[in-house]
Amino acid sequence: MTTNTTADSTDDYSSNDRRTHNHLRSCFETACLITAPFLDKQQGLSGMPLKLSALQALRDHYPKLTQQDIAILFSTVQNYHGVRSRI
What we know:
This protein has helices at 6-15, 22-39, 51-61, 67-81. By secondary structure, the protein is an all-alpha fold. It has a domain at 32-87. Helix 3 (51-61) crosses helix 4 (67-81).
């Protein structure tokens, strides 16, 4: 019976990384800052966040991203800010 060393198991883990859309990772922190005022319930209308305005702000700031990339980025930003979507 063979045993894995820690170096081998670390290499296996990094090679099996399931995360995709690595190009969106560099945009995430800025996207959170851009959308924060729109997704804050305290600043929204009647306690509701301004989701469409936040989405449009992302589109304006990242015009080269595809619609799918914007949707993925917006979804992760909403999760970060704790906004639940009813759609």
